[in-house]
Structure formats: C-alpha cells, structure tokens
Amino acid sequence: MKIHSTAIIHPKAVIGENVEIGPFSVIDQNVKIDEGSVIHNNVTVTGNTTIAKNNVIFPNSVIGAEPQDLKYYGEQSKLIIGSGNVIRESVTINTGTELGGGETLIGDNNLFMSCSHIAHDCIIDDNVLLANGVLLGGHIKVERHAKLMGLAGVQPFVTIGQHSYVGGLSRIVQDVPPYMIVEGNPAKVRKVNVIGLERSGFSQGDINAIKEAFKQLFRSETLNRNQILAELENQEDLIPEIKVLIEFFRNTDKGRFGRYRESLRSTLTNIS
C-alpha cells in the first residue's frame, strides 16, 4: 500500500493490497477498498461504501455521501462499486435509500467524466460512459454500453437502454430505447446508433434489422405501438436485439409518464 502521510484513514476502514491513497484524502470507517485501486489526492470516500479492484478515483470526488433526498432520514444504505472503473475529477456518487432497496450499484469498466453526478439508488451496468457534467437523478438505471454526452440531465426513474447514445445538453424525461440516438430538450429518438453498434461488434445484418424495427416503431403513420410490437414479435427468425427492443417498450408502457421504473415507485424492495 502507498498511503500519503496526510491522508486520513479510519482505523476500521478495510484497505486491500497495492492500494494507493493520495494526499489529503479521507477514507471513513465503513469503507472497503479492494486491491489495486488508486485514490488520488483530495478524495472523500464515506458512507457504507464498497469499492472492488482496480478502480481509479481522481481529485475532489466525493464517493458514498448521503442521498440528496428529502425522504432520507439517516437509515442504513450502501454504495457498491465494481472493478475497473475510472471516476474523474469532482464526481459525486450517493448511497441508496429505503425506497430503492438501500443500494446504489455501479458495475465494471465504466468511465464517469468530471463533475458527473450519480444520485441515490441508481443502477449503472458495465461499460457505461458519462461525459462531463452528466446529472443522473435518483432510481435511474443505465444499461450496458450506454453513452451520455456532456451536461445531459436525466429525470429520476428513467431507464437508459443498452448501446444507446444520449446527446449533449439533452433533457431526458422518458425511457431511452436500446440501440438508439436520443437528443434534444425535451429529447426525442432521432435514429439508430449505427456507429456505436459497429464499434461494439454488431453484424451488419443485425444493424439492418434494428434499422427496420426503428422505421416501424417511429415512422409508421398507420399502426400504434402495440400493433407494431405485435408485428415484430410475429417475425420469423427474430434476432435477440429485436426481442430486447420489444421487451423494453412493453416495460415502458407498463410504467407512468414514459418511465417503466415509475411503476415500481411504491415498492420498498430493491427495484433492479
């Protein structure tokens, strides 16, 4: 371990092998940091926070602070962070609340750029990118390989679908479908995220199938969404990506205000 002499480490904090902690950082008592992680200078890690292997946290970030939620009254809650994440300067990530099951969950290999904020009870899957100044309200789920560009703001209880792309300065108040580009204020689905899908190794055939589904879902002038989803379901050789789209829209339609997770608002268990 390389711990700077000015860092303040609570005696009950659990620090793994080969962890580096820089000058003036503060690690509180209920924190666990696994091996190989690097905590730069002036970082605060607090709350009931578990950080897995090989994460890098840059200066002035505050990780594991209490939820910024008027319904929070000091109950026990957690922040769990996976492996291989890069958390840049001045990022804030809060612990969970009772309504969301008491946990904020971060997966593996994510990049959170400077000044991004992840509020209470969010669930971030793997390989997600939050660009500078992205703001996530409470209870948001961001699925794998999603990318949100600078200063995008996301309403609580929204789901951001896998392999989607949210344009900078967008105001997101409804669920973002997988594989799509969404942007604007308020945001709208613009087209298929072709470049992102190509970079993730999708075949041209699968991309073409997603494009065709996009045309049916967002360009039809004669059929409503339920009719379109039924037609998609009845296609022969339905590829997994189209099944994902169908399930996503079905879930969104179960919710309120275009947000599936709104339908789970009254539960007091984990709503992952």
TrEMBL record:
One of its GO terms (biological process) is lipid A biosynthetic process. Residues 175-255 form the UDP N-acetylglucosamine O-acyltransferase C-terminal domain. SUPFAM superfamilies: Trimeric LpxA-like enzymes. GO terms for molecular function: acyl-[acyl-carrier-protein]-UDP-N-acetylglucosamine O-acyltransferase activity. Keywords: Acyltransferase, Lipid A biosynthesis, Lipid biosynthesis, Lipid metabolism, Transferase. It holds the Pfam family Hexapep. InterPro entries: Acetyltransf_C, Acetyltransf_C_sf, Hexapep, Lipid_A_LpxA, Trimer_LpxA-like_sf. CDD domains: LbH_UDP-GlcNAc_AT. One of its GO terms (cellular component) is membrane. This is Acyl-(Acyl-carrier-protein)-UDP-N-acetylglucosamine O-acyltransferase. It comes from Candidatus Scalindua japonica.
